[in-house]
Write a structure and sequence with these properties.
The chain has 24 helices and 23 strands. The chain is α+β, with helices and mostly antiparallel strands.
Length: 734
């Protein structure tokens, strides 16, 4: 048992020797205070408390199990998001042991019980010259009362294991299991204006950069409020550049936390960064730079005439991994609510309509009438169009998906459900899902087939439906809106036989009522917010639902463009099979290679050459991630190429590398879903939730370890797939 005095230390008492237990941010504040720089009074809850919490609750043993399901280096961005939410939920639902809670209460109460505070991270590796961890751990502003402080303490500890922090630690070669977290509990100074300053402007070291906003800094840090900005000469403080934004709102302290509020007219028209304020901040910045002997990134606030340093960290050097490449893109996925509103508007009003127009224009081209040279050019043109839209998808659609995660974290923080993804019950069942709309249209066609025995017989014998019949009219409408799916289900002279086979399968028995799993209640969610927070609560839910819907729909628009490329390639392949055409042959290898990679799931036998020998292994259980609650047992239908879908039978378990949006027409037939690709935000997981299907994602080697016909059990609660009669894996000869 640790002595209580080691759990909490006053900031002014900290020295460099306390770095390992107090963290860089707290030690820097102690150094500023000892040099006479004004800081808000506060305490540091040391890493001793964090270690004691992990040991006393058993979390030290439970946390690594979440990572061991799959190597961290192999996780996609969706899986990283999932991991962060699961860890956060674990901390939310693991209360402080009574002894630790009593010790911390006794130490914090005299200073913090009756005043608003900020609760911020201060990890031992934070704010060094090579690793800042800026913005990667959680902070909470305007926390009131001991129960709330102790609650936020756990959330700051949990952020040590956030997706972004884990990714950064991997780059730095740090072991998360060996890391620890200290926490600053500091009196909140409600400043009239606040900002950040760099004693050496990034990229222009002869200049100083100062930014300021009205109110608290949270709006600036979160990216919700654009700051006024000054660039000054480092030598003499002369103003070199001034940037003035449109000022509309400020972050203010409210009853519990902070909120964005409209600025009064006087503050809209007046800059928070006057020349007088710039002089004060410049002086404080010089003190910090001299104190630490290195360029500083300073956060500050001004209350009346009192200027406080809120934190000071070294400007990180180029020796550490910078936010470039994949990590920079990954960090950009985390959008504020305001940014998501803007992004949603751009996607719905500009991006998707433009993609639709391109798809329609390409569909209007009569490929059979093109010369060989024109067809080769058309293939390259379509490849270029698809590449361009896929880049836009990466820049806009994937970041938009963060609205799901943002809402989920908000919901979990408020309601503390035992299931970390219970919030999806509030997002599922949205009638705007295009895949669900297509499936309902398919079911309506199947209902017409079921009600007409003569039509059923005609379709079963391979004859087209009678011209002008209600079914023919409905079928024409379906094909006009959704396409005939022939690129997957096979082609016929007039209608897709594959589509007819699918409709016959859907028509075999009356459809069962799909139960969408509503694990949450909207009224319960809204009741967790105060009256002044209701607008924000509704806004977050709206963005969550829009993100959930677009996460499904945007893939279908990409799918339409992909289908147009496949059509052109198929026409080229047909001609090459009939004639030895040099013009098309020049495009055959690169074009068909690209198309084959799109048609063939990664990890399938075709992707590895298609001729790997098969070695029998007795596979019993494969561990993935739970993505759709439920338990089902059935025969596997393994999809290694699109044509495999033609044989899908009612009640089979769909096993694939990843559920392509254009594959989801089999969802009404499926008993469950198993995917190699992982994450609660991938298309397969979303469609599984929509249809109430048990689903496990992130299953390594799913299409290799399971064969069509295997009897498997899908446990969507635990994320386990059990193969009852063995499995087959393909291995090369050695």
């Amino acid at each position: 048992m640790n002595h209580p005095s080691t759990l909490v230390i006053d900031l002014v008492e900290l020295t460099a020797a306390d770095l390992h237990r107090a963290g860089g941010k707290a030690v820097a504040l102690g150094r500023l205070a000892s040099s006479g720089t004004p800081i808000p009074p506060g305490l540091c809850v040391t890493t001793t408390a964090y270690d004691r919490y992990l040991d006393d609750t058993g979390l030290r043993q439970r946390l690594p199990l979440l990572l061991e399901r799959k190597p961290f280096s192999e996780m996609r961005w969706e899986e990283l998001w999932d991991l962060g939410l699961r860890v956060r939920s674990l901390f939310l639902n693991t209360t402080l042991p009574s002894g630790l809670a009593a010790d911390l209460t006794g130490l914090l109460a005299p200073r913090c019980a009756d005043r608003p505070v900020t609760v911020r991270s201060t990890a031992p590796v934070e704010d060094s010259a090579t690793a800042s961890f800026a913005g990667l751990h959680d902070s909470f502003v305007n926390v009131r009362g001991l129960p709330a402080i102790l609650d936020r303490l756990r959330l700051v500890w949990a952020s040590l294991w956030s997706d972004r922090a884990l990714l950064y630690r991997q780059e730095l070669g740090l072991d998360p299991a060996a890391s620890a977290m200290a926490v600053i509990v500091q009196e909140l100074v409600i400043g009239d204006l606040s900002g950040v300053a760099f004693s050496r402007c990034p990229g222009r070291p002869n200049l100083v950069a100062i930014e300021a906003v009205w109110g608290l800094n949270q709006g600036l840090v979160d990216g919700d409020v654009e700051p006024d900005r000054l660039l000054l000469d480092h030598a003499d403080g002369r103003i070199v550049e001034r940037y003035t934004p449109q000022r509309l709102q400020a972050c203010r302290a409210v009853t519990d936390g902070v909120a964005l509020q409209p600025l009064p007219v006087t503050e809209r028209e007046q800059s928070p960064l006057s020349d007088e304020v710039a002089v004060l901040v410049m002086s404080l910045l010089r003190q910090a730079e001299e104190n630490f002997g290195a360029p500083q990134d300073l956060e500050w606030t001004l209350r009346g005439r009192e200027l406080f340093a809120l934190q000071s960290r070294p400007i990180t050097t180029g020796d550490a991994p910078d936010a470039s490449g994949e990590r920079a893109w990954y960090l950009s996925l985390h959008k504020s609510l305001a940014a998501l509103h803007t992004l949603r508007q751009a996607i719905e009003e500009e991006l998707l309509p433009a993609m639709e127009r391109d798809a329609l224009c390409l569909a209007a081209v009569d490929l059979e009438q093109l010369s060989d040279e024109a067809l080769a050019s058309e293939i390259e043109k379509r490849q270029g169009i698809l590449d361009r839209w896929e880049e836009h998808y990466r820049e806009m659609c994937i970041p938009m998906a963060h609205g799901i995660r943002l809402f989920g974290q908000l919901y979990n923080d408020r309601l503390r459900p035992g299931e970390p993804f219970a919030f999806l019950g509030l997002l599922a069942g949205d009638t705007g899902l295009l895949a669900a709309q297509r499936n309902r249209a398919l079911q309506e066609l199947a209902d017409l087939v079921r009600s007409d025995p003569l039509l059923t017989a005609r379709l079963r014998d391979g004859y087209p439906p009678g011209s002008g019949s209600p079914f023919a009219t409905a079928l024409a409408g379906f094909m006009s809106r959704y396409g005939d799916l022939s690129w997957i289900l096979g082609e016929a002279a007039e209608h897709s036989r594959g589509l007819m086979s699918l409709l016959l399968e859907l028509a075999k028995s009356p459809p069962t009522q799909q139960t969408i799993r509503k694990q949450t209640d909207e009224a319960e969610y809204l009741a967790s917010f105060t009256m002044e927070e209701q607008s924000f609560a509704h806004e977050a839910l709206e963005i969550g639902r829009a993100s959930y819907r677009l996460r499904d729909n945007d893939n279908l628009f990409i799918g339409k463009l992909t289908a147009r490329l496949r059509e052109a390639s198929a026409e080229a392949t047909r001609r090459l099979a009939e004639h030895d055409n040099l013009e098309l042959a020049a495009h055959k290898a690169p074009v068909r290679g690209r198309v084959a990679r799109r048609l063939t799931p990664a990890g399938s036998s075709e992707a590895h050459g298609g001729n790997l020998p098969r070695t029998r292994l007795q596979i019993r259980q494969i561990v993935g991630q739970p993505a759709g609650p439920g338990l089902v047992r059935g025969r596997a239908r393994v999809i290694r190429q699109p044509a495999d879908l033609r044989a899908f039978q009612s009640g089979e378990i769909l096993v694939c590398d990843a559920v392509d949006p254009n594959m989801t027409f089999v969802a009404p037939l499926a008993g469950g879903i198993v995917e190699r690709r992982g994450g609660m935000l991938i298309h397969g997981a979303i469609i599984a939730r929509e249809y109430g299907l048990p689903c496990v994602t992130g299953v390594p080697g799913a299409t290799e370890l399971i064969d069509t016909g295997n009897l498997i059990t899908v446990d969507g609660y635990l994320g386990i797939v059990t193969v009852a009669d063995g499995g087959t894996v393909r291995r090369p000869f050695t």
